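BUG: 3D viewer hangs when loading the predicted structure for this chain

Environment: internal workstation, default settings.
Expected: structure renders.
Actual: progress bar stalls at 90%.

Input used:
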Amino acid sequence: MHRQPPRFLARRIFSQGHGANFQTSPTLQPIDAHRRDFTVFSNLDHGIGGGHSAVHSFLSGVKKEESAGFAEKNVTIDQVAAEHRGSITRYASINAGEGDGTSMCWNRAGVHIPPVNNPARLFQALFVDAEGPAKAVQRTRLEHRACVLDALHESAKQLEQRLTARDRDKLDQYLTSVREVERQLQMSQAWIDRSKPQSPIASRP
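Structure tokens produced before the viewer hung:
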């Protein structure tokens, strides 16, 4: 079987140039009409090889089995961007995939962010406004989660007094993840009553 040289494959996968005038690769050709709506990042692999088995490091440059040695674990660039976006958008980031997806997106706690693998559910999240009763259910669910986090914080304060310095550091790392969840809850509460944009395609009943 004839094998294409790696350089040829690279030209088919990776774009050339930078900014809005980059040269679209054959892989990105189907979405060339939307080139002003997305950004292409290059040189993010940090020399880590392994093909598909190394996909977990694609957006972070950190092997997941070595992430414990990094202060920010193997947080991926999409999640760093999401932190800066805050509540400007309804969803700070959207991780979509097929089936179980890939281990591509990770937060600062080193936790894998699973993808949305149902197109209908993704469409509904982006374009379908919830009706009155559904909004009430969403609001009640968020309030319950907030109560759980409040109780967790109270328990953590009581526990902290009995911990060693090393264990306090571990607890602080855990609470950092909790604060991220709280931030996401606040964002969700702020967007419940805001209308979603109109879909560019008609939804099916």
